[in-house]
Amino acid sequence: MLLRGVNLGPRNRVGMTELRAQLHADGFEQVSTYLQSGNVLLTNDASPTELAAQFRGLLRERFKLDVEVVVRTRDELAEVVARDPLGEVARDPKRYQVSFLERALDEEMLNRIAALAAGSERLVAVGRELYAWHPHGVARSKLWAALADRRLGVTATARNWSTVGKLLTLAENPS
Fold this sequence. Notes:
By secondary structure, the protein is α+β, with helices and mostly antiparallel strands. It has helices spanning about 15-25, 50-65, 75-85, 105-115, 140-150, 160-170, and strands at about 1-5, 30-35, 40-45, 70, 95-100, 120-125, 130-135, 155-160.
């Protein structure tokens, strides 16, 4: 599960240790987290849609947080990594982002966002993922600003390529 906008600045703060403990108490199995930015791995039989709704409810009830949740299975995450459509050009994994979407963008919105890629920036859309290469960083990137904007019209949260790879490793080797 990927949480949008937690532990960034003073809003939406949740300790990963506390979150893991609460998830264990609520019956989730093989719970682990990665970094403080809302990366949660666990074992559950619910569908991704059901799990996202259940987890949002838990965050609201137990932590008083109203944050978006995007779920990918281990197999879906493996497909994201295997695709790697920008691997030929994306040389710095910290500047290579994957935006995980609740659903695919409509063509009009995708075209509008793609038009914001400046210089050597690249954007590739594959289903519910947007792969973006920001060779000069995200700080001044209009493309990145659009991808991170809630006006995208779909729940989305991004992770850099290093984090995506680490999440797959953790999902394949649960503790």
